[in-house]
């Protein structure tokens, strides 16, 4: 668990650690989900540190996207590269997420 979260007004900034696996997804969920649906209108996820993501990490991102969309919020993922970028492309999540 080396993630960082910062909330400024109605924007949440999330920087996950190197590996988004089951354990990391569980910890991130406990930290992030209570904010979503409240006053958070935009979630910005900086994936620059992430070198590995498994199905639980992907599931966390999909569920997060769904939850923020219900509240008419926006989720943006930035700095995706390497293995993680390939996983997003193969799973077609590049069509679901806004990736910059």
UniProtKB/TrEMBL annotation:
Top-level taxon of the source organism: Bacteria
Record-annotated STAS domain positions: 1-100
Pfam annotation, one family: STAS
Protein name: STAS domain-containing protein
Source organism (scientific name): Heliobacterium chlorum
